[in-house]
Amino acid sequence: MNTKTNDKFNAKTQMSEGVCTVYLSGELDLSVAPDFRLVMEPLVGNTEVDLIVNMKDMTYIDSTGIGILLSILKARHGMEGRFAVEEVPTQIQKLFDMTGIAKFFQT
């Protein structure tokens, strides 16, 4: 399990039977984007596992965080690797719906 944490953001990874789940909590914005990228970069290229981002404990995401998720989606799609976002909190789901990106994230 890999963990990256600071005062306002936490990312924890868990591998289990061909699935890598990244559990996010707190606020994903410009100030913590480098931390998120650090966790995600080694995982994106591993198409031997399904990659899932669990957002259950997220309280906020800005355009930078959304951009990172979209770049992961694009990269995984190009490699024919599965990528999904699950347990999206209501306030973040509303943002995904308003921006039109909800349809791109498998659940």
Provide an overview of this structure.
The radius of gyration is 13 Å and the shape is globular. The mean pLDDT is 92. Helix 1 runs parallel beside helix 2. With 107 residues, the protein is an alpha/beta fold. The protein has 3 helices and 5 strands.
How many separate helices?
3
Content of β-strand: 25-35%
* Helical content (DSSP H or I, runs of 4+): 25-40%
User: How many beta-strand runs?
Assistant: 5
The averaged pLDDT comes out at: 92
Main β sheet profile: 5 strands, mixed
Order of strands across the main sheet: 1-2-3-4-5
How are helices and strands ordered from N to C? Answer: EEEHEHEH
From the spread of the alpha carbons, the general shape counts as globular
- Which stretches of 5+ consecutive residues score pLDDT under 50? none
- What is the rounded distance between the termini? 23 Å
Structural class: alpha/beta
Question: What Rg, in angstroms, do the CA atoms define?
Answer: 13 Å
